[in-house]
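Supplementary Methods S3. Complex input for the magnesium ion-bound model.
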Amino acid sequence: MTQTDTIAAIATPPGAAGLGLIRVSGPASAEVGRRLFRPAHKTCPWQSHRLYHGDLVTADGKTVLDEVLVALMRRPHSFTGEDVLEISCHGNPLILEAVLEQCLRAGCRPARPGEFSLRAFQNGRLDLAQAEALAAMISARSERAWQIGLAQLKGALGDKLRDVRSLLIDALASLEAAIDFSDDIGEEEAPPAPSQIAKAAKQIESLLATYRQGRLTTEGIRAVITGKPNVGKSSLLNSLAGRKKAIVTDIPGTTRDLITDTLTWNGLLVHLTDTAGIRAPRDIIEKEGIDRVWALLEEADVTIILLDGSRPLTDEDRLIMEQNQSRANKTLLVMNKSDLPAAWSPGDLQDRIPPGSRMLRISAKFGVGLDDLRRAVLEQAGGRGTDDGDGIIISLRHKLALKKALDGLTAALENFRAGRSPEFAAFELHEALDAVDEITGRKIQDDVLAKIFSTFCIGK
Ligand SMILES: Nc1nc2c(ncn2[C@@H]2O[C@H](COP(=O)(O)OP(=O)(O)OP(=O)(O)O)[C@@H](O)[C@H]2O)c(=O)[nH]1
Ligand SMILES: [Mg+2]
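Predicted complex, serialized as structure tokens:
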């Protein structure tokens, strides 16, 4: 797709910096360069992918704005697939704005958010999943999220989808042959479609299974510390955070609000929240605090139930454990104050530890057992995948499309099982194929496309 207009934007973030970059893309890029750039050396052959040093001047040629480096990337070997001009100037927002203004005077229009990436997609330089991966990589807040974004940018997801696609196309081909020659095919020559469909469904299922991990990686793990008052919840937050984030006293009911700190463990973000101790509330402030804890626990990826090992267990401890039964596989039972003599042993809890939850011993005050706790939190959240980010899905859009494809395949298989005419299965397969193609953007509606790119930043 060739665009007739040339777009320009500041590609670096607002604020002062050593350098800033203006990006121009479209048919007039070379002309904009010739008008605004005055080379330091007499000759400037404007070879593609070469840096030239000189002054950036106003469109009327009268005023020098900055000393710059420029590069022209001629199509199709550029990010967008069009002629691209990049101007590196000094990173003062005033300079960047002034240079952008001159680009607009020289014939560009301001780029919309994500428009460079949109053009790259439209010119076949990136598939849609890669363009989204690029945006995800730019906004990644943890090392793992960055790695996954990079793997997708390199086409890891596209490769997996290509496998699924070719299975579906083979299945469709044999189905359509069966439809065309239905009279000639005997029972014993049943088409191989069902086995290919089942194989594709398996691959989609395993991709779908990565979504939880993908989400944890990009958004971070939400871990909540709960327990009755005075068991050491705030002390635990403080030792894990390495600073005095929450107030600690020996008065039960010290914490009333939710206090969250975001930490990085093993390259993953962990949003750790300290909460009000759970007991029969003494006043409406405490009641509000406790109500918030119950609501928060619903959304938690991991719940750390903290128990005081130095004092006998009480009904309050038991109530919290019981309330959390249904989330056992997201729960860690943690016996605190291991530096003091134990008043009970984990064995006493045997009948209360639901399958799936785990038991650990720590001392929040003296920082004992915290490495094990960190490891257990990551494991319990399922955030410690063994893969290297290949083909992990991180976007809800991808998840929904894969789900739609899987539903189509399941319906197709059901049609085979019920012995219906192959047209029915073929219809479902086409639907599934369309859903897969929505992810890479091979087949996508313009409004969906516009919506996706509008979430990107300007200059991207
Ligand atoms: N010996 C010992 N004392 C601890 C430990 N952890 C916490 N404490 C003490 O227990 C008391 C309560 O600690 P907090 O961290 O405020 O307890 P909390 O669970 O946040 O209490 P509330 O906010 O009231 O719910 C303080 O005196 C802490 O010093 C520990 O590992 N060992
Ligand atoms: Mg507290």
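The longest strand covers residues 64-73. Residues 6-126 form a domain with the Gyrase A; domain 2 fold (CATH 3.30.1360.120).
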